[in-house]
Specification:
The chain is an alpha+beta fold and 153 residues long. The protein has one domain: Roll (Endonuclease I-creI). Helices cover 42% and strands 16% of the residues. Strands 1-2-4-3 form a four-stranded antiparallel beta sheet. Helix 3 packs across helix 4 and helix 4 runs antiparallel to helix 5. It is globular. The model has no long low-confidence stretch (mean pLDDT 89).
Length: 153
């Protein structure tokens, strides 16, 4: 990863907090989940800038939901590069800081390079996966106490 200045780290962290995902997911069906940082945005220039500053990542065009919508793109940073990237920006994250801390501090301790897990180690890894999934669940209070809402939180 290229060296980022404080403003760049904070800006990128803000984009990830707003439009990004920090998770553990599988590349292939028979693998255990690995770190993934994704940022979805319709502004391709922003994603190219982040990719250039990070020094890695892949940008893919996504399918439009509706014809009148802008074309969406997604920047993906995977595996060890995702861990390095998160280590660089995690102090500037607000919303997704717990996700980054869990991955950067625990992932390596529950992951084997050869993929031959003991029952105990696999259980620890899957607990980490579940902890990240819980953090990524949308809060149910989002529809409560909004103007015009009849629901009470």
């Amino acid at each position: 990863m290229r060296s980022l200045n404080l403003a760049e780290k904070a800006y990128i962290a803000g984009i990830i907090d707003g439009e990004g995902t920090i998770t553990l997911s599988k590349k292939h069906k028979n693998e255990t989940p690995s770190p993934r940082v994704t940022i979805s945005n319709c502004n391709l220039d922003v994603l190219k800038w982040i990719k250039k500053k990070a020094g890695y990542g892949n940008i893919q065009r996504k399918k439009r939901v509706r014809e009148h919508h802008s074309i969406p793109f997604e920047l993906r940073i995977l595996s060890d590069r995702a861990i390095h990237f998160l280590n660089e920006i995690k102090d500037y994250l607000r919303i997704k800081k717990p996700h980054a801390i869990l991955i950067t501090e625990k992932y390596k301790s529950v992951t084997l390079r050869n993929g031959r897990y003991s029952k105990d180690l696999l259980e620890k890894k899957m607990k980490l996966v579940n902890d990240i999934k819980k953090l990524n669940q949308r809060p149910h209070y989002a529809s409560y106490n909004t103007p015009g809402s009849t629901k009470k939180g």
